[in-house]
Specification:
Helix content: 25-40%
Radius of gyration: 40 Å
Shape: elongated
Structural class: alpha+beta
Distance between the termini: 92 Å
CATH topology of the largest domain: Rossmann fold
Number of domains: 4
CATH architecture of the largest domain: 3-Layer(aba) Sandwich
Low-confidence stretches: 22-30, 45-55, 238-250
Strand content: 15-25%
Length: 883
């Protein structure tokens, strides 16, 4: 039994303790965490088992490799090693007296280098000449932790070293001369004293060395290697012994993120095998798991699975099946070997695989020739490849829904993607199939391409394929092509989209007609990694080849009948109390924006009219409302406009600093082949919504004319490279700006000359709100008290659900289409005359703006007719803007 005290003692020494339960020899909880983290302490971890059994395990073992112990002089982490003496030859050499070894005249394996290493080792451990009658095994028992194993000549001799060297297994040794030097977990664990043997529960491992410290020595590995080099096949192990001393240096720590990224890429390409293949693999190999060679088998088989790109999950299941079939009680050790192997592979270290496993099967397990063993493993790998291919085919025929950003990172498959069309090309032709005919020899064959090609595989006239076969024919073959009409479109996610996540989609034949830029589409097809225009100099990209394209409605706020009934009931209750529904909406919306109720009302009016297409048979022709916030810096213009675009779907935002006028509408591109394409800008993408331009004054004056048609007509015509494009912009513009001098020059008067936009732009804004910094003492008192209370209300969740309530109300109000009565027209005409007398310019546009605002107010009140009350409210808004 392993209780708290021995566990703590072992870990203090530097042993990497792992608790094990009997009879299954399964690892205790958290074994993988303990394996992956050398500084993990089992003794300080609270395990989710009964408190009284917290440190009680039937068996205990130590992992090898890096420990939590540091060298006192250098501060470097030390590595735990163990020599496992499996055979009599190794035991006998360790039992020879030191004096005889140093004399060495009786044995060929005692070299001058070995004598030098022994002398250096003895000096390091403080052994003097008078102790020459002792053997090296005696010295180890007196200076480090040593365990007696069940084998007659078996010992585990432990030591610490600065360097981590290559592990040497019994498979590296000649038959009858086996030993192991364990330097990591690839060869399994070392059972600790007090544990029972897996094959003989009556046998307990015992400690035969010191138990209060571990020897730290960097000579022992070379000493053992020199002493037993004739035991190793070919005289010595692979010389590619890696010094891992620097694994934890500053440079390695700096490279940690890079290694993790590489590991993630490798894991992404690993394959999950089907359950049937996992069981078949275990059945195929179980007969070769001969006792005495299982450690080496699992080590090399783990490497074979890694090199074959089998996922660690599937590899774990295969090993579990093998252990179950062979009644292997060391299943936990096998899993740790697998984990260690995969970790080495992820780190880019060399790991043994199928060739070494074939040698082991041929030479030591099955006694067959190397060709037969290699063929056996090749058949297994073929079975894995077949399963992988079948899985890929299933994925390609099984429709999977993906977002645009996910599709951009999908290399193959049959997928359905929903996105907004943000760009499109002109129509061009791609090669669908090729028929090659030779009249001289009668050759006639048609090749249908898997995907349409930009470049064909053969010239129009080319050499007959039979020419190379010795038949008659030369440059006599004619290639005939079948073409398919093609249009490229680019789509992006409807929400949280960026230009970096735009997906190229190829439309063919019937789907190339009447493409509506800015619309939402569902695209179904196969995705492939191709090069643009089949040009080898172009970088590979994921492209979706379409089978079907369906236009769908833009995302709207869903309203159920219950929602509509609740909205009508809420408004009716407010009407009975004499409370304005617009005032109540103002109270619910952005309560942290204090002193801007009149601006919020304008935002609501813009939202209910946003994105409505122009109609020449309607008065006014343009229904969408454009709004400008202009004023001193730091007066919440940006915050209010940003809150506004959260009220209705499909709003877009852009900063005037980083934009040009043309880029806000669309950009025409021409690639190296001369093909044209159009990429839509922010205003074109904000179809039926609001296009927010923050800091419109930063847009250069010579770029602002590009906005004229978008703001007024809703359609922009443009020509570039001789390519005409008609861009629809059914968008309401909400812009913010500072005055030309950053602050207003006059506290009492506003001049249009201080607007940082062209007069034609300013004239297209229906509502212009002037922002000034309010420094009145009464307002400041009100602001600070209210702001503190609002912050508390947010923390307490008082405003939870208010935004959704306003969004649903506006969505419902947008479904109303109120008409203007004759009395309202007369009232507005009279008001227009009064504005003319007061010197207001742009009266014709002002009249249309009055109509739009009046209709918007009626919509907000859920009316079917605009009445005098609504018109009066509209006139009050204009009086506020034009006092």
């Amino acid at each position: 039994m392993f209780t708290e005290e021995p566990v703590k003692q072992y870990e203090c020494l530097g042993l990497r303790y792992l608790g094990i339960y009997l009879p299954s020899n399964a690892a205790g909880l958290n074994w993988k965490q303990a394996y992956l983290d050398p500084e993990y302490r089992w003794s300080t971890t609270t395990l989710p088992i009964k408190q009284q059994d917290r440190y009680t395990f039937e068996n205990g073992a130590s992992m090898l490799g890096r420990t939590h112990i540091k060298d006192r002089e250098t501060g470097e982490y030390l590595n735990l090693n163990a020599l496992d003496t499996d055979c009599q030859t190794v035991h006998n050499r360790l039992s020879i007296s030191i004096g005889q070894l140093l004399d060495g005249s009786s044995w060929d394996w005692v070299t001058d280098r070995l004598r030098d290493l022994i002398k250096a080792f003895l000096v390091g451990v403080g052994v003097v000449n008078g102790d020459c009658d002792h053997s090296l095994l005696d010295v180890f028992r007196q200076s480090t932790f040593v365990t007696k194993t069940r084998k007659e000549f078996g010992h585990h001799i432990y030591w610490l070293s600065k360097q981590q060297r290559k592990a040497i297994g019994t498979a590296d040794c000649r038959k009858g001369y086996e030993f192991e030097i364990k330097t990591d977990n690839s060869l399994g664990l070392c059972t600790l004293p007090g544990s029972a043997h897996k094959d003989d529960p009556t046998y307990r491992y015992t400690a035969v060395g010191v138990t209060d410290h571990l020897l730290a020595n960097d000579i022992l590995y070379d000493l053992f290697l020199e002493m037993f080099k004739d035991c190793i096949i070919n005289g010595k192990p692979d010389d590619n012994i890696k010094d891992k001393t620097k694994n934890h240096s500053n440079k390695e720590k700096d490279d940690k993120n890079q290694k993790n990224n590489k590991k993630d890429r490798v894991i992404k390409n690993l394959v999950v095998l089907s359950p049937s293949i996992i069981k078949a693999t275990a059945g195929y190999l179980s007969e070769f798991l001969t006792k005495g060679y299982r450690n080496e088998f699992y080590l090399r088989f783990s490497g074979m699975m890694f090199h074959s790109r089998i996922s660690e999950e599937s590899a774990t299941q295969i090993i579990a099946e093998l252990c179950a079939k062979t009644n292997d009680e060391e299943s936990m050790a096998r899993q740790i070997t697998l984990t260690a192997t995969y970790e080495k592979g992820f780190d880019g270290e060399e790991i043994e695989g199928a060739p070494k496993l074939a040698e082991l099967i041929a030479n030591k397990i099955a006694g067959q020739d190397i060709f037969s063993a290699t063929l056996l493993l090749d058949n297994l790998k073929f079975m894995w490849r077949t399963d992988r291919k079948a899985k890929r085919q299933r994925e390609q025929t099984q429709l999977v829904n993906k977002s645009v950003s996910e599709a951009k990172r999908t290399q193959s498959g049959y997928i359905k993607v929903r996105g907004s069309i943000v760009g499109m090309s002109t129509v061009y032709q791609m090669f669908k199939s090729m028929r090659v005919i030779c009249d001289d020899c009668g050759y006639d064959e048609t090749t249908v391409y898997k995907t349409p090609l930009y470049r064909p595989h053969a010239k129009e006239w080319s050499r007959c394929p039979n020419w190379s076969k010795g038949h008659k024919g030369g440059d006599t073959a004619v290639a005939e092509y079948e073409y398919t009409s093609t249009v490229d479109i680019w789509i992006q996610d409807i929400e949280n989209s960026t230009e970096l996540n735009r997906l190229q989609v190829k439309l063919f034949d019937a789907n190339t007609y009447d493409i509506s830029a800015g619309e939402i589409v569902d695209v179904i097809g196969h995705i492939y990694v191709v090069r643009n225009n089949d040009n080898l100099n172009s970088k590979p990209e994921c492209v979706l080849f379409t089978d079907d394209l369906v236009y769908t409605k833009r995302k709207e706020i869903a309203l159920t009948k219950q929602d509509k009934d609740e909205i009508q009931g809420w408004k009716s209750a407010l009407d009975k109390k004499g409370v304005s529904v617009i005032d109540e909406l103002t109270r619910l919306f952005a309560p942290e924006m204090i002193g801007f109720d009149h601006v919020k009302k304008g935002i609501f009016i813009q939202c209910v009219n946003a994105g409505i297409k122009n109609d020449k048979e309607r008065l006014p022709i343009r229904m969408k409302i454009n709004v400008l916030f202009i004023g001193d810096p730091g007066t919440a213009k940006g915050a209010l406009s940003n809150a506004a675009i959260k009220l209705i779907p499909n709003c877009q935002s852009v900063n005037g600093i980083a934009s040009s006028g043309i880029s806000l509408i669309a950009v025409v591109n021409r690639d190296s082949s001369g093909a044209m394409s159009v990429n839509l800008g922010t205003l074109a993408l904000a179809k039926n919504g609001i296009g927010r331009i923050n800091e419109i004054g930063r847009l250069k004056l010579d770029q602002q004319p590009h906005l004229f048609d978008a703001m007024e007509e809703g359609v922009t015509d443009m020509v570039k490279y001789g390519f005409p494009a008609n861009i629809e912009c059914h968008v309401s513009v909400l812009a913010t700006a500072n005055p030309i001098s950053n602050k207003w020059k006059n506290e009492d008067k506003i001049s249009i000359e201080e607007f940082p936009v062209l007069l034609q732009i300013a004239d297209r804004f229906d509502l212009i709100y002037i922002f000034r910094e309010n420094t009145e003492e009464a307002f400041l008192d009100h602001y600070t008290k209210t702001r503190i209370q609002v912050a508390k209300n947010y923390r307490q969740g008082i405003y939870e659900g208010d935004l959704e309530k306003v969004q649903k109300y506006i969505a419902y109000a947008r479904t109303f289409n109120p008409k203007i009565g004759d009395d309202v027209e007369l009232l507005l005409r009279h008001f227009l005359k009064q504005m003319a007398k007061s010197g207001v310019d742009g009266l014709f546009r002002k009249f249309d703006s009055l109509l739009r605002v009046s209709i918007g107010i009626a919509r907000l009140k859920l009316k079917s007719v605009v009445d005098v009350e609504d018109a009066n409210e509209a006139m009050q808004i204009f009086q506020f803007m034009h006092p």
